[in-house]
């Protein structure tokens, strides 16, 4: 192993030690032996067989749970479902026909590869279909669809075939009704953030190729001493992946998946069409390094949560000021647990953090991990703290 990888192992060891050694938001980390009274209890919401390869989740104000199974490696029985948390039954959403993929049809009324979900403060469900590089994206482009959950009907839809290329991969979404914008992360190509004006329907890809959007080439997602690789054996490189919107809607937090760097940018700068690429880049703030997380989410109390993919835990970050600059304080929220494997999708609802455990390292990578346990949605009660902004 060369010196670069040795430095990476040392960095991960220090980060893991800091996370494990610090007192968690609700107490010390959850151990594999079970939780103590002060530690968060990991509750199982639903489990899935491999015919539904879970990735994205959304939770409504009434506690309805929705889930997605993108078709990036293998097409599941359904692409998007509502989960009956009492019986485990899966109901295709919005109906059966949307979940029967028809390669010769256009993408207007079917799921090509629906990736991420978001439930906004109006209890509307937003579904992001990333499409696939293998299809004709002029006919089946990436799309974002807003559903009224009371009627299961489409409210609005946005297509991105003219904004991103097949080399891009829009991955996650946050809705900002304060400014009437949607923000989508781009995990492929040069990364960046897609900014959609919800009133006009116009979209732009910004921060593509920016230092904050592209994974540091000197760092990788590591499994012990092994670099994470795709099924074809190539090194896994994912750009802008996890994003989170602050409760006051003033900041968008984001990061590439395959390094340890964290960034944020004012939403006011993202939506300012007069700013040049250089001016926008100067508004970006570096927050320091932390656990290598996939999905991110920020609670109403302003705490940032993510899954530590290298250590199979869930971490929480407080945003603090240090020497006049924003910085992260990392804590372990859910420590190593025999059921928790790959925490990568998140939702917040009714005082709980919901976690999608997708087992991607066993299904989508070539590192020889054995297939263990079922894909699952868990939940953990969040600490009671005052809200700092809008809910959802």
Describe the structure.
There is one protein chain. This protein is mainly β. The chain has a single domain (3-381), classed as TolB, C-terminal domain (Neuraminidase), CATH 2.120.10. The chain has four helices and 26 strands. A four-stranded antiparallel sheet has the order 1-26-25-24, with no helix packed on it. The protein is globular, with a radius of gyration of 20 Å. The model is unreliable at 13-37 (pLDDT under 50).
Unreliable sequence segments: 13-37
The strands making up the biggest β-sheet line up spatially as 1-26-25-24
At CATH level 3, the topology is: Neuraminidase
Tally of domains: 1
Structural class: mainly beta
- Give the CA-based shape: globular
On the 0-100 scale, what is the average pLDDT? 90
Provide the succession of SSEs.
HEEEEEEEEEEEEEEEEEEHHEEEEEEEHE
Span between termini: 45 Å
What is the CATH class designation? Answer: Mainly Beta
Strand content: 35-45%
Tally of contiguous helical segments = 4
Could you give me the name of the CATH homologous superfamily?
TolB, C-terminal domain
Give a quick account of the main beta sheet: strands, pairing sense, barrel closure.
4 strands, antiparallel
CATH architecture title = 6 Propeller
How helix-rich are the residues, as a percent range? under 10%
Give Rg in angstroms: 20 Å
Number of strands: 26
